[in-house]
């Protein structure tokens, strides 16, 4: 049964945006605006901000969105050095990526040192052979939404095989496996890029390891 | 007509205007703003915000590089216009320029959308209502079905009447998708099924209509300009037959293939048709020239890339006129004041590699030099050091040349393209030179089936 006169009230389910996180100078974190709008309600300098905590409200075409600190953010709010903030306006116009808050994580480091692990493994490459992006663009691992991925971890590649698509200026081209530095038969160890991620020319796409003859036996039916 | 435009009281002009586009389009709109004393504010993505053409300009960053998050993000653009105190917005061409929902959103938030009213945009956006309206106004159409087809049997009946080959087209189609050709009665069923499946997949609308396939025609379009007081003028026609994969490469005016009688008749009918649907602003009607007759295909409810060809021939600034009309002014000229002189040609220079099947080629332009000289106009946002981003289309610049005759305009274009320097990314200049120098193009013996000289 459809619910009669059901109104989606923004007061009950306030839309939420997450601020963007960027590394600033001297280890400080910069929280950036997730969209265009009128921003207000930022915490004062000296307050402590952690992940998922509200850091203000962004009004976009009359709709007030709560802005939350992103995962990984945390620290004391410090006054940005480039803004004198003598008389801060009640709300100010911000563009996408404009600075909202500067956090100083060092102030909270001692108490959260136990939680801190080493630097997360980024999209870097840990050795082995790597297939790199032939051109800059957007990388697709599948031919369309809902379609199976061209390759998966563990698949064995041969030269000329399609491993993904790259879109440049609305034109799609296939990324084919092959190259002088790559083994002629290789197994996919890791797919370095997420679907629809922007890649620059030379960025790693796949990490592969050579498939030698012995391994090859296992993938084929045993000779009688 | 001129009596209507004289002695009208002064109408206020916008003070600040949002430019909701990028690249060459944004530069073109800003030039018109500068002429009118309006401050342009540029909506920009993160990929463009450091580009040279925005240096010293007011900008609002509206989102990430990908167009759906920035140049197609309606809420962000309107909010950016509001908070930068713009009372008008120019959508340019492409992106949101033909989106009636966006036009309505602008109006709802007190921002004047510079373009036709949303209802005219909506009417012309659907194929069969547009054709019905244009037939009523006296334009010739391509023979075909009266509106949407119900079944394969009906398609076969209509096809028998208009003659083979026929083209099945999607009601909501565009960009060459959802179209299939049938060359005989036995091919209709499979073409119908294929076109329908493709249309549902691409546009979510499987409705089809049918037209006789015209092979070997010429692509001709008419530039219209109208104000909100019922004044409509045309600025002549443009011939855009030279295309690659439905993308125009080269445009010229006047069309070298059109007879004076047919030109006269269709220009008058196009003006009547625009008036009959209450059109306001700049618009273009596209026709196929079929054995001497101009047959209506569709109307673009916006300014087009190649509007500069008509500007060069008429000496009128269409973007200035658009902004004035949107501010409530009547047209500053009547039909009698439009004097079309000489011949004009435009070449679109793209960052594509002709040696590698026209693969788009983003990258850094190390050195750039725009051609200059008598009768040469260059519209571009590119300069030395500009980085061509991979996210958008590949147009780098438009070169427009004018001359007293077609040969003079072509000669100036060849000289201008020879002078153009673009180091760092490959361009389509060699392709244009090949076309311009080909006997087929010089003697006007070509049509939509092939690029002359290739």
UniProtKB/TrEMBL annotation, chain A:
It comes from the Bacteria. InterPro entries: Single_hybrid_motif. Residues 199-224 are annotated as: Disordered. Gene3D superfamilies: 2.40.50.100. This is Biotin carboxyl carrier protein of acetyl-CoA carboxylase.
From TrEMBL, chain B:
Residues 13-454 form the Biotin carboxylation domain. This protein is a component of the acetyl coenzyme A carboxylase complex; first, biotin carboxylase catalyzes the carboxylation of the carrier protein and then the transcarboxylase transfers the carboxyl group to form malonyl-CoA. Its EC number is 6.3.4.14. It catalyses: N(6)-biotinyl-L-lysyl-[protein] + hydrogencarbonate + ATP = N(6)-carboxybiotinyl-L-lysyl-[protein] + ADP + phosphate + H(+). This is biotin carboxylase. Keywords: ATP-binding, Ligase, Nucleotide-binding. It is an enzyme of class 6 (ligase). It comes from Nannocystis pusilla. The keyword Nucleotide-binding applies. GO terms for molecular function: ATP binding; biotin carboxylase activity; metal ion binding. Residues 131-327 form the ATP-grasp domain.
């Amino acid at each position: 049964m459809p619910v009669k006169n059901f109104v989606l009230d923004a007061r009950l389910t306030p839309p939420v945006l997450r601020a963007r996180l960027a590394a600033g100078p001297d280890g400080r974190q910069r929280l950036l605006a997730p969209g265009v709008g009128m921003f207000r309600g930022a915490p004062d300098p000296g307050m402590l901000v952690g992940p998922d905590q509200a850091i203000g409200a962004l009004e976009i075409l009359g709709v007030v969105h709560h802005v939350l600190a992103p995962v990984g953010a945390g620290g004391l709010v410090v006054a940005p050095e480039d803004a004198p903030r003598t008389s801060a306006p009640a709300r100010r116009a911000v563009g996408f990526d404009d600075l909202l808050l500067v956090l100083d994580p060092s102030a909270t480091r001692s108490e959260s040192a136990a939680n801190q692990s080493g630097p997360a493994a980024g999209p870097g490459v840990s050795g082995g052979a790597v297939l790199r992006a032939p051109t800059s663009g957007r990388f697709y691992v599948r031919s369309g939404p809902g379609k199976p991925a061209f390759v998966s971890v563990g698949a064995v590649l041969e030269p000329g095989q399609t491993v993904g698509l790259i879109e440049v200026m609305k034109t799609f081209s296939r990324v084919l496996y092959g190259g002088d530095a790559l083994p002629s038969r290789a197994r996919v160890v890791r797919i370095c890029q997420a679907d629809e991620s922007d890649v620059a020319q030379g960025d790693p796409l796949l990490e592969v390891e050579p498939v030698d003859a012995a391994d090859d036996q296992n993938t084929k039916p045993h000779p009688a | 007509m001129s009596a209507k435009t004289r002695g009208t009281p002064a109408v206020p002009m916008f003070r600040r205007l949002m430019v909701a586009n990028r690249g060459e389009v944004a530069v073109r709109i800003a030039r018109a703003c500068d002429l009118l004393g309006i401050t342009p504010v540029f909506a920009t993505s993160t990929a463009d915000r450091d580009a040279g053409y925005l240096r010293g300009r007011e900008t609002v960053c509206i989102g990430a590089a990908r167009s759906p998050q920035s140049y197609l993000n309606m809420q962000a653009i309107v909010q950016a216009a509001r908070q930068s105190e713009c009372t008008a917005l120019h959508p340019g061409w492409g992106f949101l320029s033909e989106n009636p929902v966006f036009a309505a959103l602008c109006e709802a938030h007190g921002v004047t959308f510079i373009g036709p009213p949303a209802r005219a945009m909506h009417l012309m956006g659907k194929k069969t209502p547009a054709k019905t309206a244009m037939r009523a106004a006296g334009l010739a159409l391509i023979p075909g079905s009266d509106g949407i087809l119900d079944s394969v049997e009906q398609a076969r009946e209509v096809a028998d009447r208009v003659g083979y080959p026929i083209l099945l087209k999607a009601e909501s189609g565009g960009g060459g998708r959802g179209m299939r050709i049938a060359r005989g009665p036995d091919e209709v069923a499979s073409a119908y099924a294929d076109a329908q499946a493709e249309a549902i997949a691409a546009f979510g609308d499987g409705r089809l209509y049918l037209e006789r396939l015209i092979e070997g025609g010429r692509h001709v379009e008419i530039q219209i300009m109208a104000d909100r007081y019922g004044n409509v003028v045309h600025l002549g026609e443009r011939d855009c037959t030279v295309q690659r994969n439905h993308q125009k490469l080269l445009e010229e005016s006047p069309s070298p293939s059109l007879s004076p009688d047919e030109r006269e008749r269709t220009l008058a009918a196009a003006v009547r048709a625009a008036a009959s649907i209450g059109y306001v602003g700049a618009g273009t009607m596209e026709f196929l020239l079929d054995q001497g007759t101009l047959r209506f295909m569709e109307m673009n409810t916006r300014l087009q890339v190649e509007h500069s060809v008509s500007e060069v021939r008429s000496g009128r600034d269409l973007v200035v006129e658009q902004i004035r009309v949107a501010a409530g002014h009547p047209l500053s000229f009547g039909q009698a004041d439009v004097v079309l002189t000489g011949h004009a040609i435009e070449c679109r220079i793209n960052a594509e590699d002709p040696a590698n099947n026209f693969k788009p080629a983003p990258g850094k332009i190390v050195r750039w030099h725009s051609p200059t000289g008598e009768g040469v106009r260059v519209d571009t946002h590119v300069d030395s050091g500009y980085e061509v981003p991979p996210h958008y289309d590949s147009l780098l610049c438009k070169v427009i040349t004018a001359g007293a005759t077609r040969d003079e305009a072509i000669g100036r274009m060849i000289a201008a393209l020879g002078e153009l320097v673009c180091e760092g990314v490959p361009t389509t200049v060699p392709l244009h030179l090949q076309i311009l120098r080909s006997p087929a193009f010089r003697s006007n013996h070509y049509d939509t089936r092939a690029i002359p000289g290739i």
